[in-house]
Amino acid sequence: MLLAGIPLLFAASLLLLWPQDEVQAMRYYRNQGTVFGTYYNIRYEASEDLEAGIMARLREVDTTLSMFNPFSVVSRINRGEEVTVTPLFETVYREAIAVSEMSYGAFDITVAPLVNYWGFGITPNGEHLTDSREVDSIRQFVGYQLTDLHEGHLYRFDERVQLDLSAIAKGFACDRVADYLKQHCGNYLVDIGGEIVAEGVNQWGKPWTVGVTKPVDDADNLSQELQDTIRTTHISMATSGNYRRFYYEGTEKRSHTIDPRNGYPVQHNLLSATVVAESCMKADALATACMVLGPQGALELIQRAGAKAYLIIGTPDGMQVITSENWDN
Ligand code: ADP
Ligand code: MG
Questions:
Q1: What is the pLDDT of residues 78-121, one digit of tens each?
Q2: Mean pLDDT over residues 269-274, rounded?
Q3: Domain boundary assignment for the chain
Q4: For 207, which DSSP code?
Q5: Please, which residues have CB within 8 angstroms of residue 203's CB and are 6 or more apart in sequence?
Q6: Which residue intervals of the chain are DSSP H helices?
């Protein structure tokens, strides 16, 4: 009788010794704030708040890719400092070059001096009238072929070459946060400035709902209007548009997407491009490339890249949606 009670006693004492957080139930958490000059909104099901780990991933991306951080790898390269690049930098650089090649130069991370010339970017030139000779002279040192990465060193074949990874950094940050969350849980949604990675289901056990923003001119970034919604249990998606960062020079709209092939802000009727790809980093870069290429070139690029696209085009009476044939969301 006494002996039979021993296993019971043992089990009870084990329960008492068990660390509290090990028996905590899974629940949905939400972490939000600002990063890279935009917002982040991250939801996930876990047994504890993972914000510290998420912030560490975001900081890591910032210290690698942000032009607004003077100590980042990219800022140091741009200043001509001797830098051994990190594996993180190399991953993003290689993907950027792949999308440059795939888009025949529409996507180009050496576009920074042109971005500045047109009044965007980190050191925007003050107001000035457009001078085509000046644009042409800047174009001499814009071109991804003027860089190479070899054994941890980023070579610039002209010291005026400046890198701008803004059009791929947010997507990469989503991938990094998602990789981290994947180690702890199966249900999460990462949204960084509208670039999205979603996996599994929401707190009601239903697929996540993600929105395609309506591309209405919205320099104050206030509009939340959606053009469409997608229900998904697995997606990496990014959107580019010329409805948030732009200004007018006379009647000409100057947008923050620059065509590196002629040096000018893009001007066509493609209002926004939403791209789904195997990684958010790739989707992000492809979305900007689509904005440069315009509707037809965008569809061709998306097919070559094995991705999917949802394009919103401005028409005299409003907007029209065209999608790649494989768009099934
Ligand atoms: P969007 O939401 O429109 O994609 P991003 O910030 O992701 O906005 O990308 C736009 C930024 O990318 C610009 O502000 C500029 O710094 C940079 N950029 C502009 N044109 C190009 C281009 N052709 N290729 C790569 N980067 C570009
Ligand atoms: Mg982008």
A1: 999 999 999 999 999 999 999 999 999 999 999 999 998 988 76
A2: 94
A3: 26-323
A4: B
A5: 28, 43, 45
A6: 2-17, 51-65, 73-78, 87-102, 112-117, 132-139, 166-182, 280-305
Ordered DSSP codes for 247-276? EEETTEEEES-EETTTTEE--SSEEEEEEE
Strands 153-156 and 188-192, by their bridges, are: unpaired
Which is the closest atom of ligand 1 to the Cα of 169? 7
CB-defined site of ligand 1, < 6 Å = 107-109, 111, 115, 120-121, 164, 166-167, 170, 240-241, 256-258, 260, 287-288, 292
Are the C-beta atoms of 84 and 191 separated by less than 8 Å? no
pTM of structure: 0.90
Tokens of 306: 């094995």
Of the listed ranges 157-161, 168-172, 312-316, the least confidently predicted one is 312-316
**N- to C-terminal Cα distance for the chain?**
65
Give the strand order in the sheet containing 195-199.
27-35, 38-46, 188-192, 195-199, 234-241, 270-276, 308-315, 318-323
Residue nearest to ligand 1 atom 11, measured at CA: 167
Ligand 1, pocket-test mutation among 99, 135, 164, most atoms within 8 A of CB:
164
Tokens representing residue 120 in the block: 């965007």
**CA–CA dist 90, 88 (Å, integer):** 5
In the chain, the largest separation of any two C-alpha atoms, in whole Å, equals 99
Q: Any idea how long the chain is?
A: 329
Report whether CATH 3.10.520.10 matches the domain 26-323: yes
| HSE-up (13 A, CA, CB side) for residue 191 | 16
Model pLDDT for residues 15-44, shown as the tens digit of each residue: 555 555 555 799 999 999 998 888 999 999
Q: How many whole angstroms from 167 Cα to the centroid of ligand 1?
A: 4
